[in-house]
Amino acid sequence: MARGGERTGMLVVLEGLDGSGKSTQLALLRAWLAAQGLPPVMIKAPDYEDESSVLVRQYLGGRFGSRPEDVGAYAASAFYAVDRYASFRTKWSEDYRAGRIILADRYTTSNAYHQAAKLPAAQWPGFFDWLEDFEYGKLGIPRPDLVLFLDMPPQLSWALVARRYEGNEQRRDIHEADRTYLLACRETALAAAAALGWEVVPCVRGTNPLTPEEIHEDIRARVWRHIR
């Protein structure tokens, strides 16, 4: 892909509430792209294994307060933005500029809904504008070509997270532990999708969850349209 005469790769971001099945879908999409001769570069935001994520880890671990709203939307966004900037500059900028497909497990787009959930609805558009200008404009990290939001109802995603942690509530971070906050995040995610041009991928039919294979088929079709 060329932008302003510069050849770049394609950045595909998979988003969703905790427990929405992102890990499964990322693995399926990675395998499918590799089978097409387009093996992607995988990135995860935040990068918990890198020292650049220290503020994110402290925030999620409750060092700055036990509730998500104890750290304001703009301050928390800056924690994550620093980690993304470091990741881009040190780990995947060369692959991106070489034209590779970058497949991201969360990105700037996570801030859009996780942090907007702390603000009144009237402030969401201004926050979305600030966030995109800050990260894509001021910091200069790439803007995604495609953002897919896995829309799993919070009641189901909450149950899936509980299963992941085998009932040990102490293992949840301050986002995962706050059910009201997760409900608000779904509302802000759908608002962000409408405002910012994300594609919403339904994960249920009626009240019944779709199978991972059905969701993957939908994702695969959406990604292929962008690749072509």
Provide keyphrases for this structure:
228 residues; alpha/beta; Rossmann fold; 5-stranded parallel sheet; two-stranded antiparallel ribbon; 9 strands; globular
Explain the overall architecture.
This protein is an alpha/beta fold and 228 residues long. It has one domain: Rossmann fold (3-Layer(aba) Sandwich). The termini are close together.
Write the layout of secondary structure elements.
Layout (H helix, E strand, L loop, with lengths): L1 E2 L2 E2 L2 E7 L5 H14 L5 E4 L9 H7 L12 H25 L3 E5 L2 H7 L9 H15 L7 E6 L2 H11 L14 H18 L2 E4 L1 E2 L2 E2 L2 H16 L1
Parallel strand pairs: 3-5, 3-6, 4-5, 6-7
Antiparallel strand pairs: 1-2, 8-9
